[in-house]
Amino acid sequence: MGFGRAGRRARGAASYVVERWLPRRRRITPADAWDRVTPAQLLVLSFAALILIGTLGFRFLPGLYAGEPLGWVDALFTATSAVCVTGLAVVDTGTFFTPWGQAWLLVLMQAGGLGLLTLTSLVMLSVGVRPSLRQADLMTGGGALPEIDVRRLVRVVFKTTFAIEGVGAVLLYAGWIGQFGLEGALWPAIFHAVSAFCNAGFSIMSLSFMTETSQPLILLVTMALVALGGLGFLTVSELASRGRMKRGRKRRPLSLHTKFVLAASFAAIVLGAVTFGYFEWSNTLASMSPYEKVSNSVFAAVVSRTAGFNSVDFGSAAAPTALMMMILMFIGGAPASTAGGIKVTTAALIVALMIARLRGQDHVSAWNRSVPSETIDRAVGLTVLAVTTLIAALFLLVAIEAPAPTEPGAEQAFIHLAFEATSALGTVGLSMNTTPTLSEPGRLIVVALMFIGRVGLLSVGAAIALGPSRQSFRYAYEDVAIG
Question: Domains of the chain: which residue ranges?
Answer without folding.
Answer: 37-241+254-464
